[in-house]
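Support request, priority: normal
Reporter: lab tech (M.K.)
Component: structure prediction queue

Hi team, I submitted a job for Molybdopterin-guanine dinucleotide biosynthesis protein MobB from Zoogloea ramigera yesterday, and the status page still shows it as pending. I've pasted the exact input below so you can check whether something in the sequence is tripping the parser. The sequence length should be 168 residues. Please let me know if I need to resubmit or if it's stuck on your end.
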Amino acid sequence: MKVFGFAGWSGSGKTTLIEQVIPCIAGRGLKVSVIKHTHHAFDVDKPGKDSWRHREAGASEILLISDQRWVLMHELRGDPEPDLAAQLAIMSPCDLVLVEGFKSVHIPKIEIHRPAHGRPLLYPDNPAVVAVATDAAPDALPGLPLPRLDLNDPAAVADFILRHQGLT
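Reply from support: The job had stalled in the queue. We restarted it manually and it finished. Here are the results:
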């Protein structure tokens, strides 16, 4: 599986861009999956549901399955968070895994940058960044040594990823 990441400050538009890039890639007959890292507490379960009750009772894993989808919930229960390699190892085979977050993991990634947010660029301190997708005017990032992608052109971003990963 090829792996390609998206990095940027919170609120920069990583999720939105990934959401727009997925159909551009899947529309070419490629199977694409996503891993999203979050620093926030999250729960896909609902209090009172059977699966929630099983977790609350102490189950380490709960697999929910229907004729439409399945999901495996794994409770860490104090164990360390698995790294990206461990997460990739449990994913079903596909052509491309898009990764949101994992800023410090060394996989090729696009930085999402919006100058209006007032945050610095990440690429100078992150050698894994291979391009910058931005909504800045063309002359707003003088001297940018990386490919500059239009944040509002997901098809061009998808093309860049596929070329970079040798999938075209």
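The chain has a mean pLDDT of 93. The longest helix spans residues 14-26. Let us know if anything else looks off. Ticket resolved.
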